[in-house]
Every structure is written in C-alpha cells, then in structure tokens.
Amino acid sequence: MTEPPPQALPVEGWRPTLAVRAGAIALLLLGEKILLNFLVDFDAAQAAHGLGAAVREAQHWGFRFLVTMGAALALFGYVRQDARLAPISRAVRAAPLRLRWLLLHAALLLPLAPLSYSLFGGRGLELPLALIVVLWLLFAAGAVLAAFAALAPWALWRRAAAALGMLWLYAAIAAITAAAAMQWSQQLWEPTARLTFELVQRVLSPLVPSLQGDPRTLILSTDRFAVEVSAICSGLEGVGLMLAFVGAWLLYFRREYVFPRSLLLIPAGALLIFGLNVLRIAALVLIGHYGSREVAVYGFHSQAGWFAFNLAAGGVVLVSRRSPWLNRAAVPAAAGSRNPTAAYLLPFLAILAAGIVARAVSSGFETFYALRLAAAAWMLRRYWPQFAALDWRISLRGPLAGVAVFALWMLAARLLTAPGSMPAPLADMTPAWRLLWLAGRAATAVVAAPIAEELAYRGYLMRRLQQADFEAVRFAAVGARAWLLSALAFGIAHGTLWLPGIAAGLIYGALLIRTGRIGEAVAAHATTNALLAASVLLGGQWQLW
Known about the structure:
This protein is mainly α and 545 residues long.
C-alpha cells in the first residue's frame, strides 16, 4: 500500500520550510563529520598504501565533491525558483519533526566513532581494513537516511528530488569541474608567484636602491630585510576569495544588477585584489627596510592581506551600487543625506578597521587594543540618534539566551582549541598598564562589540537579506532564509569557532525575531561575552581571547 501524498495543512506556530530542513541536515552532517575527524589517525593515513591510500583519496575528493555538489544544487535551485517546489515546501511546513528517526540517526552514528578510530590500522578494532570501510559506509548511509527521515517524510524528499530534475546533472557537472579545478589550480601557484615577484620588484626598484631580486628563489632582499614571494604570497588566495565574494554578491542581488555588463565586476575584482597584493608585499619590504622588522613580520604581514580584501570588496560594492550603468537601483550619494546602511555598519567596521591598524603597527601582540573601543564609541555616538526607533528594552530572556550560548561556546572551544596562557607581552607589562589593557579588552567585548555586531548582523544584514528597504522590515517579519544566512555570516567571521558562532547567530537572531527587541539580542550577546571574559580573567582560559 503506497503512502498518500501529504497535504499542505494549516500550521500553528513556526515550522521550517524544505530549504531550512535541508540546510539543517547539511549543518548536522558537517558538524558530525568534523567531530569524527578528530578520531582519525591522519599521520597513518598519509603513510597508507594500497587500499588505505585509495580510501584516503576517496575520502578527500569524495567529501569535496559532495560539499560542492550540495552547494551547487542549493544555488541552482534558488536561482531557478521552480514553481513545482512551492507546494512541496508548504507540505513540508505541515510535517512535524520525527524524534524516533532522530534517535535512530544517533544510534547509527555511535558505531562510526570506533570505526573512524580504527581506520588505516595500528589501533582500535582488529578487523581487516576492507571490512572496516564497508561497515563505515553502511552505518554512515543509514545515519544520513535516518536524518532525512527525521526532518520530513520520505515521500516529500522524493517529490522534491524529482522536482529538481536536470539540476542534479548540472550540479554534478559543477562539482566535478570544481574538484578538478582544485587540482589544476595548484599548477598556477608557481607562475603566479613569479609574476607577483616581478611586479613587486618593478614597484620597489625606484624606491629601494639596495634591492636585489633572485628569480630562482623568488627572494627580494635589501641590506636590512628580505622577503620570499612564496606560493601563498602569489595572490591566488585573494583572487579566489574575491571571485567567491563577487559571485555570491551578484547572485543574491541579481534583481538589482544589469546583466551581462555587471559580470565585468568579477574580473575587475580579481585584478583589483591581485594589484593590492603586489602593493602589500611592496609595503612589507618598505616597512622592514626603512622601519621596524618586527612590525613588518608580526604585525603588517598578518593583517595587510585581510585589509586589502576588505578594501577591494568594499570598493566593488560601493562603486557598483552607485553606478546606474551596473545597478538598476543605484542612488548617487547626496551631500547631507541620511544613510541608514552606514549607521548600522560603521560601528562594527570601525572596530575591524581599528583592530587591523592596531595589529599592523604591533610586533605580534595587539598592544593598542583600546583603539577598537575608541573607534566604536565614536561611531555609536555619531549615529545613535538614528537608532531611536529600535526597541532597546530587555528582560530575563536575553541574559538566559546568553548563558546558553556561553555553554555551547565553551563546549566547542574544548574540542576546537588548545588551552592557552597569558601572552608574554601582556605578562611583561607593569601592573597598571596590564590593568588598563585588560579593562579596555573587557569593555570592548562586553559593551562595544555586542552593540556594534547586533546592529550590523541582526539590525542590518538579517533585515537587508529580507528586503532592500531594511528599515521597513519588522524583526518579526524576517524569514528563515535571512535568519539562517545572517547567522552563517556571523559564524564564519569567528574563524576556528565558526560552528558555535553560527549557533550563537541563530540564537541571537531567533530571540530578536521572537521579541522584536534589539535590546534582548544585545543583552544576550553581552552576557555571553561577559562570561567568556570571566573565564579568561578568573579561569585562565586565555585561548578564548
């Protein structure tokens, strides 16, 4: 007897859509894969031969293929916006989450721990590698199927898969091409590094008379300082980031841009970031030769790359949004006009810019951290009247949510970071200067950062993803897509701790959508940061800072 197709019934309360449930499954499986990786002996994997080497390569490229195909499928489906998916999504909203399948998923996941630990031999289960691999695949496949069944009935997943049609083929082609491009791109490192070396040498020759260049080793040296233009300094990494950023920007805001001419932004952004990388290396040599070697190596070198990327990305966005030739909704800047986007973003951007400057002029330790606090305070004071319409009230819900995020953050930090101690430069300060530095660091974390980040990520980005006129969007009207994407951006900004960062973004965003009060989100964020600061100052958990 076949299962009848589910009907789109009225739903009481919030029920996730098809896209949200698929995204939740992707995040769940990705998180579980990361945890299982901690159990794998990668040293033994690198030394494996025969079947072990084949398993290692299959895992390496297979995972890349699956991730890329999933991303391509999501992007293609979003761009096409097939009308056949709409009734399926409505039916999914009416489907409850099924706990028994989630429990089965957890049960099937447990055997993967000893199996992962036993891969590549030498420890764990004394079983043939072929049998371990077969068992791993069987349990993993069962766990994946159970996860899908927990989020929605199989009949709905089958209908959704059928509705995508040829997109499966296009996504597979894109995934194969991307995986192959990862391999082919490695061949570009050496010629790109050589081109960068030659361009930097041309820029510096009139400025540094003692400059010497060795084309064989790609080393630029003066009588005081030397730099090797290695593969990672070639600029390809920045070009890749810029291509991804501009492509994603044009995809999301495709209705505002004029195609195909707006596609010129892609090569323009790539050339811009490559040129800025050349200037970055030239500036590094100049600082090391004429200024401080320590500042060049430990400060400028580590921060200039991100500064160049932010400058290039911001420049592309600013120019393209003000150009009627590229953007249908372009509005030239008018003197004295009110700019709500600047009001919401500049406090956060001021913290980032001050941090880049403070680290760039340091020698490994951000001595002038208080610049972040001063920059945020200046911007908040300037734009504070524009936030009068926001609801800044708080209740107990904000701090309680902050405590929950803190617990998740500490758990993730134990898994993803190593214990740390007080930085030596801080320990070497006089007690008075150390106290001032700690006060500035704590005030930034507990006061300035929560306000600036909530204004930027939830006040602006979450609503801007919902509608161009973001100030007209009530927080309660924010949809699941904007909520998820803003949380994803928030998590990625936290580097190694991106996974708890995403969870924090989801919790803060949900709290704001539920209450309509940005004060609740700020209170939650401040509570989390205050507890983290206490863990550092009272518990010695310096890796959290």
